[in-house]
């Protein structure tokens, strides 16, 4: 009977766990829908903004700006966007692996999210700033992040600004990305620019085949660039954060659903084992009673 008690105890424990994971699944599903809508809604604006910058740069090559001037140093600052909480599968692990493969060994970090900030501290990486962004993500809360990155770049503290985030593809698929934010169009060693990966909307090769666009500028091309390039940086940071947030809630919902399904399956297996042992115990008791009755005859 001790075995029966142990199994009953395990069944109760697994049921309690399943209730928790099911509740977390429902919460993640509600947050996931809002985050996915926010990520998808911003992609069209990011695409049009990038197209405009590309056309201006192509048609007015003589104009320059610190954000588009190439640099040849190796000092790198990485904006690392992870999650504050766990229970979202291998989301943070995959991103950490990508960062290790595609960034400088001595790169410094600006972090959003507690999980990989803690990892950076444990590995002895320099974290120059840490930001907290609530959910859902407001554009006003990501602007200070972009401003900090821009200041570090303009002051010459770093030669390259990268963003490490998780790109949202669909509910079941999220892809870790490490892309170059600054300098814009500053390709080196086959690296990807932010506009090519954040939102997955813009292709330079496809855009080259579009009809030539004519622009009228007022007051001037340089002043337009001075206004639009900081906006581009701000929006790319915002879009990377919302893509990461959509990926987080999607991964957590899938992970919690998998945990709930596994718990339900385990409960069925334990219940079957409990019933077998209980039936065996009943059969044993009946045999004992029958044997005793025959002995009394």
Element-level helix/strand string: HEHEHEHEEHHH
Measured as a percent range, the helix fraction is: 55-70%
Strands of the widest sheet, in order across it, are: 3-2-1-4-5
CATH superfamily of the largest domain: ATP synthase, F1 complex, gamma subunit
Query: What is the radius of gyration computed over CA atoms, rounded to a whole number of angstroms?
Result: 28 Å
Q: Estimate the strand proportion.
A: 5-15%
Low-confidence stretches: none
What features would you describe in this structure?
Helix content is 61%, strand content 12%. By secondary structure, it is an alpha/beta fold. The chain folds into two domains: 58 residues, Helix Hairpins (Orthogonal Bundle); 225 residues, Pyruvate Kinase, Chain: A, domain 1, CATH 3.40.1380.10. The protein has a five-stranded mixed sheet with strand order 3-2-1-4-5, sandwiched between helices. The protein starts with a helix and ends with a helix.
């Amino acid at each position: 009977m001790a075995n029966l008690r142990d199994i009953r105890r395990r069944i109760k424990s697994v049921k309690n766990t399943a209730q928790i994971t099911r509740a977390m699944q429902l919460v993640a599903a509600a947050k996931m829908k809002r985050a996915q809508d926010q990520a998808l809604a911003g992609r069209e604006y990011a695409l049009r903004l990038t197209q405009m910058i590309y056309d201006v740069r192509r048609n007015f090559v003589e104009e320059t700006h610190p954000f588009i001037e190439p640099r040849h140093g190796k000092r790198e600052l990485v904006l690392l966007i992870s999650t504050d909480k766990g229970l979202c599968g291998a989301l943070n692990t995959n991103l950490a692996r990508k960062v290790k493969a595609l960034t400088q060994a001595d790169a410094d970090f600006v972090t959003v999210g507690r999980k990989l900030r803690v990892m950076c501290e444990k590995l002895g990486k320099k974290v120059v700033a840490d930001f907290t962004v609530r959910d859902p993500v407001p554009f006003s809360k990501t602007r200070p992040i972009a401003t900090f990155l821009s200041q570090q770049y303009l002051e010459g503290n770093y030669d390259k600004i990268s963003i490490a985030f998780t790109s949202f593809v669909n509910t079941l698929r999220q892809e870790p990305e490490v892309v170059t934010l600054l300098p814009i169009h500053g390709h080196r060693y086959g690296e990807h620019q932010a506009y090519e990966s954040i939102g997955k909307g813009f292709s330079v090769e496809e855009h080259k085949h579009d009809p030539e666009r004519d622009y009228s500028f007022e007051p001037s091309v340089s002043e337009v660039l001075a206004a639009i390039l900081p906006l581009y940086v701000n929006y790319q940071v915002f879009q990377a954060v919302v893509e990461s947030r959509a990926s987080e809630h999607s991964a957590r919902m899938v992970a919690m659903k998998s945990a709930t399904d596994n718990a339900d399956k385990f409960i069925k297996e334990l219940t079957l084992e409990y019933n077998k042992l209980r039936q065996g115990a009943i059969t044993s008791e009946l045999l004992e009673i029958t044997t005793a009755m025959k002995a009394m005859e």
